[in-house]
Amino acid sequence: MSFRIALNFEDGATRFIDCNDGEKVLDAAYRQKVNLPMDCSDGVCGTCKCHCEQGSYDLGDEYVEDALTEDEAEEGMVLTCQMVPSSDCVIQVPVPSSACKLKPAEHEAAVASVELVSDSTIILTLDLDAPEALTFLPGQYVNLTVPGTSESRAYSFSSKPGAEQASFLIRNVPDGLMSSWLGEQAKGGDRMRFVGPNGSFFLRNVDRPVVMLAGGTGLAPLLSMLEVLADQGTEQPIHLIYGVTHDGDLVEIERIEALAARIPSMTWASCVAAENSTHPLKGYVTHHLTDAHLNAGDCDVYLCGPPPMVEAVRLFFKEKGVEPAHFHYEKFAASEPVPA
Questions:
Q1: What is the distance of C-alpha 201 from the center of its chain?
Q2: What DSSP assignment string belongs to 97-121?
Q3: What global pTM score does this model have?
């Protein structure tokens, strides 16, 4: 038996390792050439201290309190030199991946399809060369290189981990580098490369009601999360509010309906901001976020959208005096270059 351990580094990079039953995380990492911070490896110095955000484990009793206090252990801090997982885990490592001598994980794929599903949105689907080599947490993103250039763009997966194909919702930006290539040059079989996964915006354990708020192509990572929830099952209420600017910007509605059919506890709504909209629900996502959804703050909120939307939701919570148990959000800006 082995467990999947996601190591999330300070710079946003994520690397997955397999930890055998009874094996310590630090040993498993070194076995797979991931040089996590360490010094003594005996639970004395505290150099390997990290935060376990998700999963079950045992720390034993061989470490000293100077390395890890009782309060720290109760807050989920761990010493990787002593930590023995008993489930899959997500660990936050407080150093950049480069400090652990890690190179970004590169993947290659072929274009399966490019669909202009609205004036504002392109769905890109890729056939992965090695699906088994791509592991990510639902909600994470990769840096996708624009063919024929040295520039990349960051896009969240709308597909679920483990799928044979990777899919992305891409905003169709006029004269945008990636948008132009997809709209004017891309054809089936074209080669593409990407680096990742990256990001701290991902689905955590669901143990309370969940509210998902999407703006435009910010729907992508939430679709990935919902696919995983549909596979795993959950009895917790899940409510999605998907907002766009114009009626024609609404995409993937059939897919959302299919996911809602697979998740009995899921409800959802879409809204359109334009004043001339004919959509049944008008305005912004906050106009349709009720006290019942917020459950007096006992809920986890996942928000992905442009910066003004994120700030508007933060202000909405502040004005209502509601503080969600957990508030995970990701801002995005169109055509923002990232290192190749």
A1: 4
A2: GGGGTPPPPEEEEEEEEEEEEETTE
A3: 0.89
Which of 100, 126, 150 is a domain's end point? 100
Give pLDDT, residue 334. Answer: 58
Contacts of 144 (CB under 8 A, 6+ apart): 152, 153, 154, 155, 168, 178, 192, 193, 194
Q: Could you list the residue range(s) of the whole structural domain that residue 58 is in?
A: 2-100
Judge contact between 246 and 272, C-beta under 8 A: yes
pLDDT in tens, 16-59: 999 999 999 999 999 999 999 988 888 898 999 999 999 999 99
The sign one gets for the Cα dihedral 254, 255, 261, 266 is negative
Three-class secondary structure of residue 286 per DSSP: helix
Do 221 and 300 share a domain, yes or no?
A: yes
The pLDDT value recorded for residue 301 is: 97
Domain total in the chain: 3
**Contact predicate 219/169, CB 8 Å:** yes
Asked whether residue 205 is domain-assigned, the answer is no
Q: What is the DSSP letter of 133?
A: G
